[in-house]
Amino acid sequence: MFVPPFCPYAACAAHTRPPRSAWWAHAGHHSTKAFGRVNRFRCAVCGRTFSTQTFSVDYYCKRVIAYIQLERLSASAMSIRALGREYKASCATITNRIDRLSRQGVALHTSLRKEAGQGEALCFDGLVSFERSQDFPADIGISITAHSRFVLGLSHATTRRSGRMRPGQKKRQERRYSSATFEKRAIQRSFSDHLDMLHRDWATSTTRPLVLITDEKPDYARALRRHPLYLSQSAERRCAHVQIPSTAPRVFANPLFASNYYEREVRKDQAQHHRETCCFARNAANDMNRLYAYLVWHNYSKRYSIKGPVHKTATHAEVAGMAASAIRAARVTMFGERAFLSRLKLLPIDECIWKKTVHQAWSGGRGSVKLPNYAVA
Fold it and tell me: What is the DSSP pairing of strand 36-43 with strand 24-32?
């Protein structure tokens, strides 16, 4: 028998701390084509009604799609249209399910991230792609542990196109930039978002300082030297910045190997980031949601070493120090129980993914996606 864990309405006193006494009562049921008979309940505190589906990942869905399979196929280089053909569904339906998968992944990852990779050096680099047009390059910041290759977070920055262009391309760029709004010091802000995450979640000591490995891009050094993570150093909390030339060979001995490895995996497994194809992202927020779903699959489902012995099936999260039982329990919850934004304490780097507020220069800096009410409840 289903027992409501809390009132789903954020304004209700029973939302965060439901009383120990009976705070809900049965309020009938209704029938649906997708889920059959659905029981309803009434909250005794606020008087509002809700159902068992209110706590399901498929809340407000009219069709059931297996999220585990969708996650695997999305991480196997299938585009949105290819997924639509596979499920015989529209692109909007597939995008909606990936959004749900991403939000569930945010809830899972933010709850487990503190337990992984403590003591390892961290690599940070930007994966350069483009969205909507090559005139709007996207620098996607990725922080990842050096040994276990556990991805900590993603950030987004839209920059201006550089390099040589033909006269026609320059005219087209001027026309598009006339109505565009670019974020100032976007890459510096993107790196600072990761530093905020490390400042809150990363434990350091005199014998285990925080070691950041980046390339020689000056934006990274400027952001670090202005951040409290660097300015508040003491004898107990130390931070070191190691810079590696971007021209260094991308081999295992390179300290930035983890970043180079993950960039290669994204190029291979995410259709919108393949090079020299007609498949590319049209919306920055949707692109980041799909990348976050891929991050969760990479950390908690993909084997650490594909070429390793068959009996070694540890994931990147397990190599980073997480218990396999905790990962399995969290994954079951992720695919079944709806996460509520009002019950989470997200950092800006994660809240940006959840609320789809990624800066889009071509639309005046505003996100072109309006979230449904249940996504921000």
Answer: antiparallel
Angle, helices 348-355/284-300, rounded to nearest 10 degrees: 120
- The first and second tokens of residue 191, run together, are 């790196």
Angle, CA 351 vertex, CA 345 and CA 356 arms, to 5°? 150
DSSP state of 56: B
- List the beta strands (DSSP E) in the chain: 24-32, 36-43, 49-51, 122-131, 133-145, 151-158, 210-215, 239-244
* Dist CA 269 CA 24 (whole Å): 46
C-alpha separations of 111 from 60, 64, 107, 115, 330 in Å:
25, 26, 6, 9, 9
Q: Contact, 145 vs 320, CB < 8 A?
A: yes
Q: What is the pTM of this model?
A: 0.93
Q: What is the pLDDT of residues 239-269, one digit of tens each?
A: 899 999 989 999 999 999 999 999 999 999 9
- What is the per-residue burial (b if ≥16 Cβ within 10 Å, else e) of 82-113? bbbeebeeeeebbbbbbbbbbbbbbbbbbebb
At residue 373 the predicted structure's pLDDT band, cuts being 50, 70 and 90, is confident
Question: What is the full DSSP assignment across 254-293?
Answer: STTHHHHHHHHHHHHH-GGG-TTSS--BS-HHHHHHHHHH
pLDDT tens per residue across span 264-323: 999 999 999 998 888 899 899 999 999 999 999 999 999 998 877 888 889 999 999 999
List the beta bridge partners of residue 59: none
Which tens digits make up the pLDDT trace of 169-211? 999 999 999 888 999 999 999 999 999 999 888 877 667 888 9
For the record, the structure tokens of 34 come out as 């997708």
Q: What is the CB neighbour count within 10 angstroms for residue 142?
A: 22
Nearest to 55 by CA among 338, 372, 353, 329: 338
Residues 279, 131: Cα–Cα separation, whole Å: 10
